[in-house]
Write a structure and sequence with these properties.
Organism: Flavobacterium terrae
Order of helices and strands: EHEEHEEEEHEEEEEEH
Function: This is one of the proteins that binds to the 5S RNA in the ribosome where it forms part of the central protuberance.
Pfam family, one: Ribosomal_TL5_C
Structural class: alpha+beta
CATH architecture of the largest domain: Beta Barrel
Radius of gyration: 24 Å
CATH class of the largest domain: Mainly Beta
Distance between the termini: 65 Å
Number of helices: 4
GO molecular function, one term: structural constituent of ribosome
Strand content: 35-45%
Keywords: Ribonucleoprotein, Ribosomal protein, RNA-binding, rRNA-binding
Largest sheet: 6 strands, mixed, barrel
Helix content: 10-25%
Shape: elongated
CATH topology of the largest domain: Ribosomal Protein L25, Chain P
């Protein structure tokens, strides 16, 4: 999985006044969990642009001014309800031998026979939650729709991998090919025509 580097500074004071001053200065207060104790730090808001405003999933390298460095994943983010300004971010530290939970984007691959016949592809799950060792986290989960006929569904069980496990029920529908109104109308008209032809006989 691709990684993004965030450069920041460890916070000495974590009170409300210090936090407000940080935000006024264009910085985002952050906490890194998962280690022996939480690490409080801050970084410029623009440093998170490629991490937050993207459909892709990334791991993060947090480099602090005191020389400390941590591998992590984004755990939680708080944004202002009106301005969408980032208020706070929680990260979770990664360890090579410890599984982590992460949401991974779904990428549709292949061509569906059902879509070629006029069906409509509906992506039910844009992201899927997986649990894996950091080295096994995929950039995408490929959903192959090559076998989907009109009305078919692709279940999560078809996407199983030895490298990670899904944290969803087996009956989760990832995507499906629905019959479009135009295709349904064409089928009804064809059925009527066939019925009429039989009557004439």
């Amino acid at each position: 999985m691709k990684s993004i580097t965030i450069k920041g500074s460890e916070r000495e004071s974590v009170g409300k006044v210090a936090t407000k001053a940080l935000r006024n200065a264009g910085a985002v207060p952050c906490v890194l969990y998962g280690g022996d104790q939480p690490v409080h730090f801050s970084a410029e808001e623009k440093a998170f642009k490629n991490l937050v405003y993207t459909p892709n999933a990334h791991t993060v390298v947090i480099e602090l001014a005191n020389g400390k460095s941590f591998n992590a994943v984004l755990q939680d983010i708080q944004v202002h309800p009106v301005t969408d300004k980032i208020l706070h971010i929680d990260f979770y530290q990664l360890f090579d031998n410890k599984e982590v939970t992460m949401e991974i984007p779904v990428r549709v691959v292949g061509t569906s026979p059902g879509v070629l016949l006029g069906g409509v592809l509906r992506l039910n799950q844009r992201k899927l939650k997986v649990k894996a060792l950091p080295a096994n986290l995929p950039d995408y989960i490929d959903a192959d729709i090559s076998a989907l006929e009109m009305g078919n569904k692709l279940y999560i069980t078809k996407l199983a991998s030895d490298k990670y496990k899904f944290l969803h029920p087996d009956n989760t529908v990832v995507c499906q090919v629905r019959i479009s109104r135009a295709a349904m109308k064409a089928a009804q008209e064809a059925a009527k025509a066939e019925k009429g032809a039989k009557k004439k006989k």
